[in-house]
């Protein structure tokens, strides 16, 4: 008669088999998180990626600790406006073309040909989009190309933390209103709008490698790589666009962040797109230059 394997041995064999077939769990993203302090208060700055994947969660312990410590959470937009149908319809109204000329004339033969070549294979309704301003077409191209890589705006870090703030009963606010954000886009000069669309097409036509690379750099908390591959090319290649969507908004946000530092009502977590924290005109270096104590909060960085 064959002897049975001991029960502990059978469980060990089963566990080993499961470990061999189950996918490895990804480590949480390394956060782009800084703590800015004055004498008696602090603001945490967290760099967001606005579209993410399910395996980008859970977040790192440092992010959870900063969230738990914060008395309030501040985003680019107030939570009630994020994803609001009224905001979306307002943006669509603002994008409607009301000036003379056509989208094709704005873009010129070369860029128009690139847009046509992109529109067909990607199901872009070029006839409808011809009735709107170039900045809106640029947004459509960017969003569509990122979603094709499996990135979902419903999973963005901003939305995730907005929902967490509601559950925790934390006050949440925005650095700007949706109407201001729309005005930034709609107020662009035609040349700036064309830059925005050209940059969107350039990124989309580089294929999944660029988007995946930027997402990977964000996951790894690699601020130098993000600046090198996203911030620097944008500032060098499209300076007017960079100033409009990044520098000008940083200038408007900086005094608001300082007001949170000046208050004696607990710490604040500020969640904005990662690009706003990077480079010499990013919020991190701007606050450091004003004399605040600024330190990276990143357990994984210390182990590198």
Written account of the structure:
The chain is an alpha/beta fold and 304 residues long. 56% of the residues lie in helices and 10% in strands. The chain contains 14 helices and 6 strands. The chain has helices at 7-21, 61-69, 85-95, 103-119, 126-129, 134-148, 157-168, 178-186, 190-205, 208-219, 223-237, 239-262, 283-289, 299-302, and strands spanning 33-37, 42-48, 72-75, 172-174, 268-273, 293-296. Strands 4-3-5-2-1-6 form a 6-stranded mixed β-sheet, with helices on both faces. Strand 1 and strand 2 form a beta hairpin. Helix 6 runs parallel beside helix 9 (190-205). The protein is globular.
Major β-sheet, in short? 6 strands, mixed
Structural class: alpha/beta
Beta-strand percentage range = 5-15%
Tell the overall outline. Answer: globular
Following the backbone from N to C, one meets helices and strands in this order, namely HEEHEHHHHHEHHHHHEHEH
**Fraction in helix:** 55-70%
Strand order of the largest sheet: 4-3-5-2-1-6
Q: Report the mean per-residue pLDDT as an integer.
A: 89
Query: Radius of gyration from the CA trace?
Result: 23 Å
Distance between the termini: 57 Å
Overall number of strands? 6
Number of helices: 14
Low-confidence stretches are 1-24
């Amino acid at each position: 008669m064959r002897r049975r394997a001991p029960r502990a041995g059978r469980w060990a064999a089963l566990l080993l088999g499961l470990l061999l077939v189950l996918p490895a769990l990804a480590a949480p993203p390394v956060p782009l998180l800084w703590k800015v302090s004055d004498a008696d208060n602090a603001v945490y700055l967290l760099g967001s990626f606005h579209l993410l994947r399910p395996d980008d969660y859970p977040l790192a312990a440092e992010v959870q600790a900063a969230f738990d410590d914060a008395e309030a959470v501040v985003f680019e937009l107030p939570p009630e406006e994020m994803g609001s149908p009224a905001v979306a319809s307002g943006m669509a109204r603002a994008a409607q073309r009301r000036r003379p000329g056509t989208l094709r004339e704005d873009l010129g033969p070369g860029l128009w040909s690139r847009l046509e070549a992109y529109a067909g294979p990607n199901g872009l309704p070029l006839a409808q989009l011809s009735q709107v301003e170039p900045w809106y077409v640029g947004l459509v191209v960017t969003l569509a190309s990122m979603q094709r890589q499996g990135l979902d705006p419903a999973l963005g870090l901003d939305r995730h933390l907005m929902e967490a703030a509601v559950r925790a009963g934390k006050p949440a606010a925005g650095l700007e209103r949706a109407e201001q954000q729309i005005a930034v886009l709609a107020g662009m000069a035609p040349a700036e709008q064309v830059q925005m669309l050209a940059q969107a097409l350039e990124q989309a036509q580089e294929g999944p490698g660029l988007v995946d690379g930027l997402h990977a750099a964000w996951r790894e908390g690699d601020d130098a790589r993000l600046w090198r591959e996203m911030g620097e090319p944008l500032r060098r290649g499209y300076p007017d666009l960079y100033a409009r969507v990044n520098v000008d908004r940083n200038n408007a946000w900086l005094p608001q962040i300082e007001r949170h530092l000046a208050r004696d009502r607990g710490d604040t977590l500020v969640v904005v797109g990662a690009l706003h924290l990077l480079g010499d005109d990013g919020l991190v270096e701007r606050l450091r230059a004003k004399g605040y104590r600024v330190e990276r909060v990143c357990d994984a960085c210390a182990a590198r």
